[in-house]
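In the previous chapter we treated chains in isolation. Here, by contrast, the input contains two separate entities that must be folded as one system, with a combined length of 755 residues.
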Amino acid sequence: MSDAKRALRIALVGNPNTGKSSVFNRLTGLSQKVSNYPGITVDKLSGLAKLSATALAEVIDLPGTYSLHPNGEDERVVYQALVNPAESERADVVIGIADGTNLKRHLFLFTQVLDLGLPAVLVVTMHDEMRLRGQSVDFEALGAALGGVEVIPVNGRTGLGLDRVKEAVLRAKPVPVSDRFFQPRKKGAAWLDEAIALSGSRTEYAAWLWATEPPEFGALAWVQQRGAASDRLRVDETVQRYSALHRLLKPLLHLDPGKDLTRSARIDRVLTHPLWGGLTLIAVLFLLFQAVFFWAEGPMNAIDAYFSQLGAWAESVLPAGAFTELVANGIVPGVSGVLMFLPQIALLFFFIALLEESGYMARVVFMLDRVLRPFGLSGKSVVPMVSANACAIPAIMAARNIENPRERLLTILVTPFMTCSARLPVYTVLIALVIPKVAFGPFDARAFVLFALYALGFVVALGASSLVKRFVPVGTSAPFLLELPRYRLPLVRNLWNTVFQKSRSFVAEAGKIILAISILLWFLANYGPLSSAEMDQLDPAQRLEQSYIGRIGHAVEPAIRPLGYDWKVGIALLSSFAAREVFVGTMATIYAVGTDDLGTVREHMAREINPDTGEPFFNLAVGVSLMLFYAFAMQCLSTFAVVKKETGGWKWPLIQMAGMTAFAYLVSFVAYQILA
Amino acid sequence: MAGLKRLADLRPGESGVIQDLCLDDVPPKLLEMGCLPGMHVTINYTAPWGDPLCLDVDGWQLAVRRDLAERIWVQTDQD
């Protein structure tokens, strides 16, 4: 029994695309939180559910999986949440979610759970779809056949049936473990007792799972030492379990022949057609980017305006001094720099969630797999690469869905080349500064340059991948297996939850770093090796030169002079290594020094004169060189951190940063030398 | 002629029953997803360039790459 002080812990277990998240969202509402499983990077999604007037339970939405034998870190979480020998970490009750149109495959997983001896309730979703297909099942008989489990049909859209689930969870008792689905002892007679003792398992099946863990997870490979291959044992179990389920379901499941089962397949004939499918894909992506940039513009400007007023207000209200300076010119712009991107990122997350929920994303993956494979990538690289147009951090984490380690690594390595939204303010300022506002027919030159930079990011990502793949060993060939789920109307509730959570973790993660850098930068720009009395005697321009950051800028100037930059740009480049968008803020800080008027960054920058030529410093050559540098250099500490986490070491993030920065330097150098 | 063919050699719309799988060649996950010997599968359609293939397995759709489909033998039921 669970500790009285601890709330009941419920785990949701099911295949991907079963409506599991609908059930989770219905049960927990907005009480959800995302945390990490200790030691690994898999997100843990949990929330609180009110089961009755007095009973509150913690609900954990475990990653979707087809089997308790893990194929990856995500799936291993499921195994550990159910088999963990420490009771305080283990789930008390399991809610299994099964898609009624495909009961056999879903019961495969659910009977594995039952064999662990955990109290369980089975939720059957999609029975409206079952009716359409002319399928029906006797739920009560099914529950009895499973050994006395409550089987409850639930409509994920309306929530109908969930009250029954809550009641059932409260009275769920462990189902007596039977050997009707699988007999571990038959296959493992020689070692099962030893495995039970060694693992401290409570059931034979728990010991079986422990003993047959893939060698890459356990340090064990325990069974292999006994002369049996764990893959082979896994397959034996699969065959046995499926044939048991086949026998079990045959009398319970009624099929009305003559019903059309192929609606999704017929839609797919069009949507995956070489011509129509391709055109649809282009149209969808075009609409997506249009919407993300067009719709986000208003809120972004509003946030920007709000924070510049807030800064001015803080300056006028607080007593003059270092602290006020820090608040008005360090912290407020820092916070603004993070929140500015939120509208775009939220919109992009929204569209990605829309594509995934509707089932279309799987088709995009399907269509592009063959196209991306020559570059060493997988169709599944599409999701990270599209997400990276908002931010590389969630994008790199999304690469976990790629089973093949090599394709996954390559995706992680080249994803930061995609144009993330942090580059956008840099591009916007520079384009406005150096690209004349001319139009060629319907094409605006500035819009064209921006588009070209986006295209360039994608092309270079592909090129880099086909180059780097030569140096990445082929390794084990993990299979590409992709379920193409039925098309479904997305649920607003699910979309909203996804957008809310991802936006929240973006603000928390990226916000910390950007805010810290903004404060550090403000300090470095306002203090220097000279005493504050000496500093006070200088005029503002000299003060900046004498500050710590001015000195650092001067120190790096020789290295960046061939690219057309001076020490002021050097300061911006260096501070951008924490996060690119800091560029605009830094430029604002640097060029605002010495001018008392409140112009925009661009106006200040346009006024900057190159002392050697007497002409504006930011000419076409410098502007293009800078844009290319920002397009290719890996200037994002948060990305570095997430790559280190996901690849499990320093090697790949260091190679990535060195490679990208060297490439950026080279390209900017060539561009500047040609244009200047 | 009905006969033994590689899954990759079937055309869209054709179907067959999966024969014994060489387990060194196919991933266990394929079986766990329900693609077992004895299962009836149909090629629904393929992606542009004929790869990957979309299979109908027991009423749901599974995409596999051609290289895997070349290692799965089926007894075709076309005449």
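The first helix of chain A runs from residue 20 to 28. The two ends of chain A are 76 Å apart (CA to CA). Compare these points with the single-chain example from earlier in the chapter.
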